[in-house]
Every structure is written in structure tokens, then in C-alpha cells.
């Protein structure tokens, strides 16, 4: 156990040295690559304005999203009405989608419990 701790400490030190050497250059490169997204002047007031614009834009998009949701629901209702014409491939895709949703739910539950299966932390 102690040897693994020493290995982890040495790897953390190596990572820290790498970030110290190359972090500034990476930061400058990242800013240069994304300069079209940077608002001038970069002030707190500008950030507040942008956050309010984003929130308002998201609110304004709700009616369109709601309409798209109802269209999707209507198409599912039509599929259910015509389920005798449903192909095996379509049913398989629907089953896989349901299984994927369930798996993400289970993964979220495990993460919420602190990455434990039972919910109890082993010390």
C-alpha cells in the first residue's frame, strides 16, 4: 500500500511539473484558438449581461422545444397504434434505448452514493 502511495505521489509531482512548464503556453494557445468567442471588454458586467442573455434565450426556446416534444409524442402514439406493423429492428432499437436509459439511471445512482454499490463506505 505504501509503495502505491509513493508511486501516486511521484506521478502527481510529474503532472504538476508538466503543467508548470506547459500550462501558460497551452492557456495562450487556447485563448488564441477561441478568440472569436471572447467578448470585449472582459468585465464582470459583460459576463452578467451574457448570462442574462443566455437565460432569456433559453426561456424563449421553450415553446419550440415543447412543440418538438409533442410532435415526438404524437409519432410514438402513432407507432403504438400501428404496433402490428412494427418491424423487429424498430422494436430492438426501442428496447436498447430503454436499456440505455436504465443503465444511465443506475450509473447516476452509483455516482450519487459516492461510487459505492451498497451505499456504505468501506474504511
Automatic annotation (TrEMBL):
It is found in: Mitochondrion membrane. GO terms for biological process: proton motive force-driven ATP synthesis. One of its GO terms (molecular function) is proton transmembrane transporter activity. The keyword Transcription regulation does not apply. GO terms for cellular component: mitochondrial membrane; proton-transporting ATP synthase complex. Its main location: mitochondrion. InterPro entries: ATP_synth_F0_gsu_mt. Keywords: ATP synthesis, CF(0), Hydrogen ion transport, Ion transport, Membrane, Mitochondrion, Transport. Belongs to the ATPase g subunit family. This is Mitochondrial ATP synthase subunit G protein.
Amino acid at each position: 500500500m505504501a509503495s502505491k502511495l509513493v508511486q501516486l505521489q511521484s506521478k502527481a509531482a510529474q503532472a504538476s511539473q508538466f503543467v508548470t512548464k506547459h500550462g501558460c503556453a497551452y492557456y495562450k494557445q487556447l485563448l488564441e484558438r477561441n478568440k472569436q468567442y471572447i467578448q470585449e471588454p472582459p468585465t464582470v458586467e459583460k459576463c452578467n449581461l451574457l448570462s442574462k442573455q443566455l437565460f432569456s434565450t433559453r426561456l424563449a426556446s421553450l415553446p419550440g422545444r415543447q412543440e418538438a416534444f409533442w410532435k415526438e409524442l404524437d409519432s410514438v402514439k402513432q407507432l403504438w397504434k400501428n404496433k402490428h406493423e412494427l418491424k423487429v429492428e424498430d422494436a430492438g432499437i426501442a428496447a436498447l434505448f430503454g436499456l440505455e436509459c436504465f443503465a444511465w439511471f443506475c450509473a447516476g445512482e452509483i455516482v450519487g452514493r459516492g461510487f459505492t454499490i451498497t451505499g456504505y463506505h468501506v474504511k
